[in-house]
Protein 1
Amino acid sequence: MKKDLLMWDETLFRDPEVLEIDYVPEQFNYRDDQIKELAFQIRPALRGGRPLNTVCRGLPGTGKTTCVKKLFEEITNTTKKVLPVHINCQIDNTKFAIFSQIYRKMTGHLPPPSGTSFKTIFDAIARIISKDEIVLLICLDDANYLLYENEINNVLYPLLRSYESFEGTRIGVILILSDMAVDFSKAVDARVSSVLCPTDIYFPPYSEEEVRTIIKERVMQGLYPGAISAELVNMVVTQTLKGGDLRVGIDLLKRAALNAERKAKRAIEREDICGAYQVSQYIHLSFSIKSLKSEERELIKKIAELARDKKDMSAGEVYNTVRGDSSIGYTRFYEMVKKFDLMRLIDLEYRAGTGERGRTRIISLRYDPLKVLEYLA
């Protein structure tokens, strides 16, 4: 019996890093057209010019971030005259936070935590660009979070119009959007759109065969031979397609292998995958909740609590409940509700009202309310 069990110093993982969600694979398949188009947009920077601005658009888990990171890695290894900076806007979603991260990339440290104005940071960034004669290439990943916070214009305007105050500065922007409902031509104001003029690069969802190939590659690179059967790999592929996000499948493989290791098994079994899926299916929910501010977390918590008893609720009904526990105004309340809708945490639907009520906004939670409360906790 013992020969079928892992010894204490044995593992199913050949390379655990391969099964991390943020792993950038050496072999990046099915995105050749997108990489070529993005490289074309960046090419002027390699000649000392200003890069063309770009919007990379596609659903979560379609390779947008990996595509940009692959190109940024190549640029870093090729030239010192272009400085690529990748910023996760789920984490850094204010003007000050974003420019502080740019400053850190250029100097090796963050600006002083207090007493430093935005102008001081921006002036320092512009002076370094001018002094070192470099081109700055900024990727704002999940830029839709800047829309939710009404910060997009505040961030893009100083970046794209820096040449007006500091002659010779050359800055290009790559915006990664996972929210397909966002219309950027309407999302930014005229002073920004007049200089942004981005090229759209679309990242379509992976097909079933593409998902299958990618999952098989991760299995081959990340797990030892025999750690999972072909039948169970197909099961992972099915669950990945159901979740609509490649990250679900990658996380599912990792958790299933850990479940099997916990029981000292030499191979993953069906029950390990089923157990792992109970967590992996909520990858999007987990990422979204982590990015919320405290007052937003309180509101989504209240919506989840109400949703335990009632699936559909009017916005007014929710607001009246929230207002009793806080001093939040209706304008701010509705801003947060619209943000949740854009983030795909809720569905916000307009329905015809009764009598003189006109149209009523109906809020429906997309996830099991108990799971939302669990992740909030």
Protein 2
Amino acid sequence: MNRALLKEQRIHGNPMYPVSTYVMEDLDYTTIMDCHWHEEWEFTIVTRGTVKFQIGTEYYEVSQGEAMFVHGGELHAGYRVGEEPCAFSAVVFAPEFLSSRGYDVLQDQFIEPLLQKKVLPPAFLGSEEPWQQQVLALITAIIDDNQRCSPAFELMTKARLLQIFALLQGHMRKQSHTSHGGDREKIERLKMVLGYMHEHYPSPIKLSELSGLLGMSEGHFCRFFKSMVHKSPVDYLNRYRTQQACRLLESSSHKIVEIAMEVGFDSLSYFISVFKQHQGCTPSQYRKRSAGNAAVQQAFVYSGPLVSERQ
């Protein structure tokens, strides 16, 4: 099973400017960002409500006006807290964008340790300290400039990113390659299972298959999975299948029963029940609602393309 299947396949930006910014608004689903990972680094600032972000095995409640940082290769997800819709904006960029053309003091003392994960920026960025407020203002400015394509926004983006990491220098922590070995192993094992689900979701998947991937009993596996994803394996798989069904409802004219079978449901009534549980409407209602807007936002998940992207 290819571990890269869980890796986000989207290319952020382009080779000349490997930066993309995203704006997500009025997210009223429980899971607003499914488990995924990418090599790029990411700053995400919450602009409405509260989001519980998972980064690796850690969880952070991030409220309006606060942000998080995700290092390359980190498995991460986001869950809405409370009943109020939430919103967030993000800037995703290749770390090499910060590198110097030659190997100078900036590359040696500051950029290279970050690239090699010898030092790690704080994952959570609050708004109480002056330095945090400056970082948040810079993230917001980057997103605003890229969304508007302001004059020389590419140059300003690099300058502001470098300024952000300069402000973070006094708050970095050294990476221990031994103290978190167990957590890293858990993440890699979870990536394996989720990747298997994403690859084989159109076919029947037995709990014994998933637990067998990790050499666990079914009971142990279910406890492990729920502790990491906050859902049972069945709930996660049904949600993922529902997401695939949404895309087919929006992009194809296939009959509802055909879509149900294509995404792994062998019962139309069960598919409709699960779909309504996750989307708040039936598949037919979803199709009618999305048909009126060709650019409808797939707000049920952030695992790649977002509305209002600029690159």
